[in-house]
Structure prediction request, 169 residues.
Amino acid sequence: MQRWEREEEALNLMTAGECAHTATTAVEDLEAVYSRDENDEFVKATCIVPEGKSPAVMSDGDAVVFMNFRTDRARQLSRVFAADAFNGFTCKQRPAPAGFVMLTRYAESIPAPCAFPPATLLNTMGEYMASWAKPYCVLQRPRGMLTSPFSSVVANCRILIRPCCLWWN
Prediction:
């Protein structure tokens, strides 16, 4: 889902130091976030600037190593800097970085290098357990369902629940 209004807020913070909320420390910001009843993906952009200091902002010629734990936001914000033609929203400022590197490959369609490209994992825990030729059960939280109620899926002999756990006999 494209939520460009959030990316626009984040971009304005990174490039102009402008946002609705400010704090002098990260702890002060977290306390404010909790008092505003914001959580997870809905935390508003906040400029954390010590007393008497100016916000640090991106400028033309800066080098950028970009990371974000939410890949949807990472893809969208990476496109702002890496794509020649960006039309998701009107950028107040769109610096031209000297270099832009994504921490990992957020999408093949983003024209930027990544620091840690996808790797092929060999002998994963599931492969290792299967090599024993003994029955085992994997309990896992379904991807993308961070707050889902307990659920189960029989199709792949997996039981999906919130905590991650593994056992075998």
Summary: The chain has a mean pLDDT of 77. The longest helix spans residues 4-16. The radius of gyration is 21 Å. Strands lie at 21-23, 46-48, 63-66, 99-104, 114-116, 136-140, 158-160, 165-168.
